[in-house]
Sequence to fold (469 residues):
Amino acid sequence: MTDRSLPPLPPAGPLSLWLDRIDEPLEAQNLLASAADVDVAIVGGGYTGLWTAWALKRRSPDIRVAVLEREFCGFGASGRNGGWVVGELAGGVAAYEGRSGRAEAMRLARAVFDTVDDIGAAAIEAGIDCDFAKGGAVYVARNDAQAKRQGELIAHERALGFTEDEIRALSAAEASELVGASDVRSGVFFAPCAAVDPAKLVRGLRRAVIDAGVDVYEGTTVTRIEPTAVMTDAGTVRADVIVRATEGYTRDLPGERRTVVPLYSLMVATEPLPAEVFDEIGLHSRPTFADDRYAVIYGQRTADDRLAFGGRGVPYAFGSAITPTLEHDVATHELVHRTLVELFPQLADAAITHRWGGVLGAPRNWTQSVDLDPSTGLASAGGYVGEGVAPSHLAGRTMAELILARNGDDADDELTSLAWVNASGRKWEPEPLRWLGVVGTRRVMSTADQIEYDSGRESRRGRLASKLL
Fold:
């Protein structure tokens, strides 16, 4: 930890850095005025909902699709995240291997790898300028315990069959050349990852689906979902298929309080930094970056030469509450800022211009899923645990094919048979068990990180807590 005093943080604003720079009104547009009748109703105007609508209209231009969003498209995690288009699955291959076998789990993993390039291509096709830069992800080890885990990770990935072109070990010198952080011992380079401006992506996608003929209703609160009916504050929307794409906000729907837990993640962004700073810290090809502590951190160099950096501090609020108080928690933002300066001491005097936060959704089995019940037409997709920018695109395409198959149309079997189809698990425990489990495990992991930094020795309690969570 640095003992040097840091510049004071600015007041938390209502918008993320990304949304604050959007050059268009962010007020809700086209509120639902009365009852409606469509083929597919999608609840949630983030990446998953919009990619599903995009895929449906590309495959079946005449299908009637409506997206229902309580605030405005990109209000939630899609407009606030760290901008990592990373081809990773929460839970990894192991989360799917037990139910589908290793070959199918690996097929899904590589499909998510491919999705990174698919998003770049889709952005070009739709005319979305979202600062997409495929520089990979670099994870640095900054103590011996982290370096040991990196060695074990590479051995594990090789045993699964992942190649050097997909993931590889870096020496201390190689890692420092890419990410000039302090105390680097080793690194891992993960190729299927790009940096992006997430708000430009989600708002551009909104425009693209509207242009394709999708009815996007913002400022429309969904109060209940039932087979063939979405009840809203403006009337009932009838649909043969209803897709719930609400991620961390799922807890607001009746009967869904324990489906996922909303976990908080908070970010800061620096002022634009001069070229000489990047001469020291690297990031020339805009790789995303993190170290290998148990507590999650993540950062990127933005297209206008800021560092946008985040971490998960206050993890969870009792009862799955979502409150701006925790999204703007100053103590957590100060911790995130200190951590950034630990990584890059050159930034001690750099001003922080933005700080914000939001929630991500974590299912009980830590497994992303795309579900559709053909008998009821009720569907859902998500459970990304903070890694949804890339998988949401594949989830939207998967969902579109499942809907087409239900309608008796020709569908892509390669997508409808992916291992995450109908992979949702049981609900979370009731309170206070939910709070005790999530908060207790997170605290153990934070303590484990401190032990490893102080001693350099691996903390077994951190490894155990990570497996439990």
